[in-house]
């Protein structure tokens, strides 16, 4: 489903990436796009804090209620996945040709939407969370494989430079 969503958005959304001839300009563009990917994480932190305040636990370090535990787990996993996403996206931006730089905001949107889907499905039940997690993890895996391919096959002479 993820390749179909990204391809459809790439073809049908009417925007293009700005001209980014240098690596530093591409990294700044990636950093700006990654700021939007923090939205689900920050929203999760806010909801987690509110649910922690509204829980009826008398002991602050006692056992957490299910709804508090759901939000805490979501925030923790989202932070870990965001770090992986950001570093993969930064490396990907250096290898993509100019005409494919439109993928960076599209993959950012896919990351944010898939984290929100994971959060909602995780709140419904633990057995439903696989769809949202796979929409987050499989594009990360594809980016990692492309980055490794780019480093070791396409440009092995620039691996450490």
From TrEMBL:
Q: Where is the chain membrane-spanning?
A: 29-53, 74-97, 103-124, 131-152
Q: Does Membrane appear among the keywords? A: yes
The chain's coiled-coil residues are: none
Q: Does the keyword Transmembrane apply?
A: yes
Its GO CC terms are: lysosomal membrane; trans-Golgi network membrane
Q: Which domain of life is it from?
A: Eukaryota
Q: Which UniProt keywords apply?
A: Membrane, Transmembrane, Transmembrane helix
Gene behind the chain: Tmem79
What's the protein called, per UniProt? Answer: TMM79 protein
What are the recorded Gene Ontology BP terms? regulated exocytosis
